[in-house]
Every structure is written in structure tokens, then in C-alpha cells.
Amino acid sequence: MSGVQLVILVMATALAASLLTLGLGWLAIRRWLQPQLEARLAALAETLEARVKAGASAAGQDLLEPLRVEVYSGVEQAATELLPKIRAELTAGFQAAAAEALPAFREEVRKGFTDALSASDLLDRTAKKVVRTGSSLMESGLNLLRATRPDDRGDSESR
């Protein structure tokens, strides 16, 4: 064997050994090492997720009260700024509505007094009728208390 052939044989053997080592390494990683690494990675991911959630929750709780105070003061400030405007607008609206309704209200009151004054005649007639009815009821009641009727007594006295 010549020197060149020997070098080629050594290189081919080295290349075959390297490829065999690479293939066995890849097979070992795929069969045994990768499932273990994935299981560890999943456990680490769960731990990290739990820590992040706990940290976010704690940070949220820490920020909640200042946020509430800030929102409350903002709403209070907005209400303080808007309240005079709202009051002015409502007052103006009520005054305008009252100004529109006042003539009709005055007319209705005037009609009511006119009707009341014209109804005084009706009241007088009604009062007279009530007095007549009351006196006739009283007379009937008194006649019931007496044993005889006035017509009967008058007839017996004349006989």
C-alpha cells in the first residue's frame, strides 16, 4: 500500500467513525435526552408562569389602591368642574320653561276664579236644597218619635 492510499484509508476510517459517532449521538439525544429535557423545560415553564402570575397579582394589588384614589380624584375633579355648568344650564332651562308656561298658567288661574265666582249661585241653590232636605229629614225624625202624625192628631182634636 502506498502512502496516499494509507492516508485515504485513514481519512475514510476517521470520516466513517465521525459519522457513526454523530448518528449514535443524534439517536441518543432523540431517544433519551430530548424527553428528559422537554419534561424539565415544561416544569420550568410552569414554575416561571406561576412566579410571573404571583408577581403580576402582587403588583396589581399594590397598584389597585393608588389607581382607585386617582380615579376617584379624577371623577371628583370632573364633577366639580362640570357641576356649575350643569346647574346654570338646568336653571336656564327651568326659567325658560317657566316663562313659556306662565301666561297659560295665569289664564287657567283666572278661569278658575271666574268659574268659582259664577258657581256661587250654584252653591247658594245647593245650600238651600241641603237646608230644605235636612229640615224635612229632621221633621220626619221628630214625627217618628211622636206616636201620632200631625194630621191624625189634628183630625182627632176636631172630632
Would you write up a description of this structure?
- The protein has 159 residues and is mainly alpha-helical.
- The chain has one domain (3-158).
- Helix content is 96%, strand content 0%.
- It contains 2 helices and no strands.
- The longest helix is centred in the middle third of the chain and has 143 residues, at 3-145.
- It is rod-shaped and about 175 Å long.
- The model has no long low-confidence stretch (mean pLDDT 85).
N-C termini distance:
188 Å
Contiguous low-pLDDT stretches (5 residues minimum) are none
Helix tally equals 2
Could you tell me the number of beta strands? 0
Quaternary structure annotation: single chain
Number of domains: 1
Strand fraction equals: under 5%
SSE ordering: HH
- Label the structural class: mainly alpha
Q: What is the residue-mean pLDDT, rounded to a whole number?
A: 85
Indicate the radius of gyration in whole angstroms: 57 Å
Q: How many strands, what sense, and barrel or not for the largest sheet?
A: none
Overall 3D shape: rod-shaped
Fraction of residues in helix:
over 70%
